[in-house]
Amino acid sequence: MPNNPAQAAVTPRIPLCEPYLNGNEWEYVKECLDTNWVSSGGSYVNRFERSLADYVGADHAVATNSGTAALHISLMVAGVQAGDEVLVSSMTFIAPANAVRYLGAYPVFIDAEADYWQMDPLLIKGFLEQECQVQDGLVLNKKTGRPVTAIIPVHILGHPCDMDPILELAEKYDLRVIEDATESLGARYKGRMLGTLGDVGCFSFNGNKLITTGGGGMIVTNNQSLAKRAEYLTNQAKDDPLEYVHHEIGFNYRLTNLQAAVGFAQMERIENHIEAKLKIAARYGEGLSGISGLHPMQEAPWADSVQWLYTALVTKRCTP
Ligand SMILES: *Cc1c(COP(=O)(O)O)cnc(C)c1O
User: Least packed by Cβ within 10 Å: which of 48, 65, 168, 295?
Assistant: First the structure.
C-alpha cells in the first residue's frame, strides 16, 4: 500500500517487486548491532558470498555495494579498456550501459528478439559479420575503427537470453561475456544457472530485485584470478593487508556486514520468493489470456524464468 491514501485513490499502483523481509533478517542484523560488526568486516559478507556462490554453482563470489558496481568491476576484470566497444542489450535498465561508459568504452546496442524480448543472437551475428572486420586478431568496428571486446547479455524480466549462440559467437570472435543477471537470479538456461555461463556474472540486491539488501550486488565467476582481482579493485586496490600501499586506482565498492546479514537471511528464503513470483505470473497469465492485442510474456523452451517482472506486450491501441 502506498503511504498516502489520497494519492492511492487517484493512481492505484502495483509495485514491481516489493521487499519481503520475513525470515531471519531481524535476528542477523541485531547480531551485527550487538557485536558492533556493522561495516565491511564481520562474518556475514563471506557467508552471503558463499551462499550465493553455492546457490548458482559458481566457484567464487565477490559482494559489492550495488549491481552497477558489480558490472563496472566485472568489465574491468574482463579486460575491457577505454576506447573499446561492448555489445549491450538495448532493452535494459541503463546500468550496464553506464558501466561501459565509466571505463571510457562505448556501448553498441543490440536489439531484442520478438519472442522473449531478450538480446537477439542473430543481430549480434549480423553486426560481427557485416559491420566488423578481423585485423591482427582484433575485431574492429568498420565504421568507428574501435575494437569490440565484450558482450553484456542482459537477462531481462527474470528470463534468460538464448546463451548458446551468444557464447559461440563470443568464442569465435574472442569476446568476453559479462552476464547481467541482476533481474534474473535463480533463473536457468537449459538447466544451468544464469550468471555462471559467461566469464563473469552480476547480480543486484536493490530494493526491487528478487532478494534485497537495501542496496548491493555480487560478482560471480569460476575464474580464481578474476575473482581475486575483483576483490582487490572493490577494496581500494590495497596491496598490503596492513600498510596503505596502492599501485592502481581502486574503488570503495564493498558491501557492509549489516547489508550482508540481510542478504544472507534473504538467501535462506529465495525459493519462497521464486515460488511467489511463479504464482503471481501464473495468475496474470490466466487473467490476461485471450485478450486481443495483449501478448503476455512467453517462456522459451530452454528457459526456467523466475518471472521477476510480469510483462505483456500491447500491440493494439486500447480504447477506454
Ligand atoms: C537493477 C539492475 C542493475 C543493477 O542495479 P543496482 O541498482 O545498481 O543494483 C543492473 N542492470 C539491470 C538490467 C538491472 O535491472
Answer: 168
Indicate the SS3 state at residue 188: strand
Whether 254 and 235 have beta carbons less than 8 Å apart is answered as yes
**524480466: which residue's cell?**
157
Quote the ligand 1 centre to 242 CA distance (angstroms): 34
At 212, is the secondary structure helix, strand, or coil?
coil
Give residue-wise pLDDT tens across range 108-140: 999 999 999 999 999 999 999 999 999 999 999
Mutational test site, ligand 1, from 154, 182, 253, max ligand atoms within 8 Å of CB: 182
Average pLDDT in the chain: 95
In single-letter form, the type of residue at position 314 comes to V
Confidence at residue 1, expressed as pLDDT on a 0 to 100 scale:
46
Gap from CA of 138 to ligand 1 centroid (Å): 30
Residue 158 CB less than 6 A away from ligand 1: no
Dump pLDDT digits (tens) for 33-53. 999 999 988 999 999 999 999
Q: Which three cell numbers mark 44? A: 556475514
CA distance 63 to 18: 22
Give pLDDT, residue 68: 98
CA of 95 to the centre of ligand 1 (A): 6
Span 54-90, pLDDT tens digits: 999 999 999 999 999 999 999 999 999 999 999 999 9
Q: How far is the CA of 183 from the centre of ligand 1 (A)?
A: 7
Q: Which atom, in ligand 1's list, is nearest to the CA of 69? A: 8
Determine which helix (DSSP H) or strand (DSSP E) holds 278, and give its type and residue range.
helix 270-288
For residue 309, the Cα-to-chain-centroid distance in whole angstroms is: 14
Q: Is 74 in the pocket of ligand 1 (CB under 6 A)?
A: no
Nearest CA to ligand 1 atom 13: 93
Q: What percent of the chain has pLDDT over 90?
A: 90
Which H/E stretch holds residue 34?
A: helix 25-35
**What is the arithmetic mean of pLDDT over 194-212?**
98
